[in-house]
Amino acid sequence: MESAVTDTSAATVPVGPKALTFDEVVAVAREGASVRLTDEALEAVAASRAHVEELATRSTPAYGISTGFGALATRHIHEELRARLQVSLVRSHAAGNGPEVEREVVRALMLLRLRTLASGRTGVRPDTARTLAALLNAGITPVVHEYGSLGCSGDLAPLAHVALALIGEGDVRDADGTLVPAAEAMASAGIEPLTLAAKEGLALINGTDGMLGMLVLAMHDLHRLLTTADVAAAMSVEAQLGTDRVFAADLQELRPHPGQASSAANLRVLLADSPIMASHRGADCTRVQDAYSLRCAPQVNGAARDTLSHAELVASRELASAIDNPVVLPDGRVESNGNFHGAPVAYVLDFLAIPIADVASMAERRTDRMLDVARSHGLPAFLADDPGVDSGHMIAQYTQAAIVSELKRLAVPASVDSIPSSAMQEDHVSMGWNAARKLRRSVDGLTRVVAIEILTSARALDMRSPLRPGPATGAVVSALRTRVPGPGPDRFLAPEIEAAVELVRDGSLVAAAESVTGPLS
Fold this sequence. Notes:
The chain is mostly helical. It has two domains: 13-207, Fumarase/aspartase (N-terminal domain) (Fumarase C, Chain B, domain 1), CATH 1.10.275; 215-280 and 288-322 and 359-517, Fumarase C, Chain A, domain 2 (Up-down Bundle). Helix content is 55%, strand content 5%. Strands 4-6-7 form a three-stranded antiparallel sheet. Helix 11 (258-271) packs across helix 14 (297-319). It is elongated.
């Protein structure tokens, strides 16, 4: 279980009818920023609640207010049973199972549901929105489980576990990460549990917030990770005595994809002023064309960047949405709709897993070339200190290959696998939550693959001595050497791989390169 301690230095994020930014979501979910409901939000929430309370007095059935849910929507619920209806909904839908979902995911989910409540389109009371905000600010994180969402009618089970905590039931992690009953944690924080009123249980659980939160977190990580992939590619090109002529701007402009241009620009500045590159530029160089894994790095890494840009467009639209069913319109109408369907988010969650697998696959191929004495252009077999006695990085590549194989499986889309539910009322679902869960594993896998490539290319660059790498790639090697020693006889390799993973994940290696190049794309 990751640490649950909040970062009290983080800024407060205002939550209102307007869309949140990606950075605001990350700040609340990962950095422990607090939230503040705006006056505009509270006014919008109060106005929509008035419409719901007026509708609840009518004899005409209104879905989710005076009827059952899903396939049970045909039953009219008498007024004296409607509070029980909302509580029963939350309790029955809090049916998740499996391991706990990460704290940052649950906080993202809570924030995004709060934003939809603040839109004034759900019909909850202001106190309901305030209570959800109070849980976030107290660092109380409901226990949400891996399994339970089909990504349609929203992330029902995950959101229901959050709603269960709001009524003082179920388990939560407090600000210290300790597992405690929700009622106990709320009492310690001075938060009064909710008594749900008409429509509120439904409004708390009917959104795409879990899958969207995981998308935003993955996009945030991929920005840095794709830049790191360019750093790794540059180091491998340099270590394998490749050519940088193929990265020239005029060649890249012949195929004007923006991601490709950015990636190639990164490679140019990363390889600038490299003594290793200069050592084989003469007329006697026979290296006319490098292997695809070296030559085509901007095309693959760049296509991944463009896929990420598309995902950001979809996510920005989703962050401006009000996902609920039924929804309260400004004129007072309460209308059923299908906006809870997770397809738009599910598709891009699946889409991102494809370039992740491909970027990792290309990185593994570059690593393998450095270890093969027949293709590494003068490097010792497996970069071993004494080949035969030592195995060098032979098994590091095995680890890479195992991860890449897993990433290829994770690239199989979840969103094509609809399983009908609720007695065929919900006969087509998005499986967006599943797509989001596997994307998180994909991002982690790419982090590890890129780290092993950098670990290996740094060793190869050291073995090119007395030739030295360029200033930027050399700075990356130096940053790695603060945690991992240089070449020598075989050592316990797993901790060194993990140290490289941490340096990739926290951005230290990109920062080292940028200390020479300035900001990379």
